[in-house]
Amino acid sequence: MATIRDVAKLADVSVSTVSLALSNPARVSQKTLEKIRHAVAAVGFVADPLAQSLARGRSRMVGFVVGNVGNPFFGDIRRELENYALDHGHFVLVTDSSGKTEREKAMVEHLIGLKMAGLALAPSGHDQDYVDFIGGLNIPIVCFDQKVAGIERDFVGSDNHLAGAMLTEHLLQLGHRRIAFIAGPSHMHTATERYRGFMDTMANAGIEVNPNFVVDGQFTRTAGYEAAMRLLIQPERPTAILGANNAVALSALQAMQELGFRCPEDISLAMIDNVQWSSVITPRITMVVQDTLALGGIIARRLMHRITNPQGAVEPPQDFVLTPKFVPGNSCRRI
Amino acid sequence: MATIRDVAKLADVSVSTVSLALSNPARVSQKTLEKIRHAVAAVGFVADPLAQSLARGRSRMVGFVVGNVGNPFFGDIRRELENYALDHGHFVLVTDSSGKTEREKAMVEHLIGLKMAGLALAPSGHDQDYVDFIGGLNIPIVCFDQKVAGIERDFVGSDNHLAGAMLTEHLLQLGHRRIAFIAGPSHMHTATERYRGFMDTMANAGIEVNPNFVVDGQFTRTAGYEAAMRLLIQPERPTAILGANNAVALSALQAMQELGFRCPEDISLAMIDNVQWSSVITPRITMVVQDTLALGGIIARRLMHRITNPQGAVEPPQDFVLTPKFVPGNSCRRI
DNA sequence: TGATTAAATCGAACCGGTTCGATAGAGCTC
DNA sequence: GAGCTCTATCGAACCGGTTCGATTTAATCA
């Protein structure tokens, strides 16, 4: 590998002049610039990013930290960020914490050790320790998906209260009254908001929610399945189930199928967030989806803005909340 | 941030002794080791990974390069690799080329610039240029998924010929003769092998394959949909469709649903590779799946072996080919 | 006790860049 | 031609570690 000193020797100038010419060509005379360019081409010089990062104190990379890269929601956002960052000369490094807060912390620390220019982070934690940890990081960060109370950072997400309310209202319009809700973890902002959207809408309609109709699905497949089963074995069954996310809703569909209930004839089903092959799932689930492309675009622009604009780093944090979209399916019937 | 010089000053030893103590405690006297340990704790010293990588010439990170991290197949493998690598003190950095060979090359070069200890790579290219590129890299690499002719590296994958043959045989056993095949890109090893598995099995059964029954689905959703439509509008329709991967098969299912064909009553369907929510797709597709956990485990162990064992680097490349598994569904009927 | 060897520690060079103050020379003014 | 400003270039220090040959110290042996 050719080093900058090889270039300097060949071009017969000092190392510092080469470095200057490469980072700020305007400050070098035309003649020496030519010489240096030739030398660079001749020896095939490419600057070592590691050495650059060490000397500069920061790299031209941004980190993308989520709990599950396999989730298409995060996948879309990643793609948007990547395209935008690449256009602005930055590489995206992806890390997956598998939802484990401790692992996420370690990964974030590692990325910061790598002198990342910035981080796009879907927070996995929520306690004070975690908030302090994120707050103490001295690096541009854009948080997304989960809004964590206490974290003073840019945030990009969807209106989850509205998402819950939209589907609830839809079910009410279809005549449903016995609506069950499979909730997510209570420490997650998206989960509580969706739950509130459901409860508020029911309350506004003057309908009391049967406490047995609210079960905890933890946003996961296994817990969602269990929660759905608990709903379905009750003597007084709900006429509709609202899943707070895709995993719990589809687990409910599976449970229904296994017990011999037909959807939507016996029980209607609606969910928040899409999955990859929803178009071939029968019935097509009525859902509310987030605008992942828009979210990804905002995250990307905001982060790169903070990174590239000198004064961008000190701008006060801002929240960007997008409106989700209703996507009708045929999993909800009128009763 | 505390540096190694702060530690040396506090412990009243030289910088080199601190470095030595940290990397090879046995070669330092018990007394100084204690002093150094105390000093490290006192100033909160953590070695800068960047500086270490620069000085050592390599980092303690491995790169994971695929065309689509969102694909659960790659997701499972990533998880296995990550767990194993973490246990051996290495971080995994994920990059997604979106299937673009040029982007993949740039990413691989960037990772090598980062002095990665090794790479787990699902090759996206196939031409001589690409083979030369991969061959020219002086770093432990384990390739997986696609076997590329000419690349002399460890390879971990499944027996794709067998995968195609298994499903074909299954359909033959059920009495099908007019079996259609939605193929993948001809430059991909997995695609050609699966195709050969289909053709060989048909030939062995003495059945001539109608050329109109072999269509190109490019392993993608859109091309798969188009290919399936071409199959379904023929006057002489197939009684069964075999999709060379999950995307083309599920696109075919969608096309069938849209045209009003019932599966399996009108047309049977089988596919290679699972998808995330296959259990709630109706009908449950009969398929052959790869053992992703086993694949991931082998990739992880092989890569870490090459990285950590001094002589591991020079061992000749080896192929690991696993047997896929038949998973019956109810998308194929006897005729 | 002096010579020999092994163990512990150190100093300096190095990895490959960046940055900043110093210096030399060119161009301009009076 | 002295004085001044700008521009182009350079040298040296630095980022924060590692490594290796040299040196000091301690232990072993004749």
Structural key phrases:
homodimer; 335 residues; alpha/beta; Rossmann fold; 3 domains; six-stranded mixed β-sheet; DNA-binding
Which helices and strands occur, and which strands form pairs?
The structure is a homodimer of 335-residue chains.
Chain A: H1 4-11, H2 15-23, H3 30-43, H4 49-56, E1 61-66, H5 72-87, E2 91-96, H6 101-113, E3 118-121, H7 128-135, E4 141-144, E5 154-158, H8 160-173, E6 179-183, H9 189-204, E7 214-216, H10 221-232, E8 240-243, H11 246-259, E9 268-272, E10 286-289, H12 292-308, E11 319-322, E12 325-327
Parallel strand pairs in A: 1-2, 1-3, 3-4, 4-5, 5-11, 6-7, 6-8, 8-9, 9-10
Antiparallel strand pairs in A: 10-12
Helix pairs in contact in A: 1-2, 1-3, 5-12, 8-9, 10-11
The first copy, chain A, binds a DNA duplex (30 and 30 nucleotides) through helix 2 and helix 4.
Report on this model:
The structure is a homodimer of 335-residue chains. Chain A has 335 residues and is an alpha/beta fold. Chain A folds into 3 domains: 4-47, no CATH class; 58-158 and 293-322, Response regulator (Rossmann fold), CATH 3.40.50.2300; 160-289, Rossmann fold (3-Layer(aba) Sandwich), CATH 3.40.50.2300. Chain A contains 12 helices and 12 strands. The first copy, chain A, has a 6-stranded parallel beta sheet, sandwiched between helices. In chain A, strands 7-6-8-9-10-12 form a 6-stranded mixed beta sheet, sandwiched between helices. In chain A, helix 1 packs across helix 3 (30-43) and helix 8 runs parallel beside helix 9 (189-204). The longest helix of chain A is centred in the C-terminal third of the chain and has 17 residues, at 292-308. Chain A starts with a helix and ends in an 8-residue tail after the last strand. The mean pLDDT of chain A is 95. The interface between A and B is large, with 40 and 40 residues. Chain A binds a DNA duplex (30 and 30 nucleotides) through residues 1, 3-5, 13-17, 19-20, 23, 27-29, 32, 47-48, 50-57.
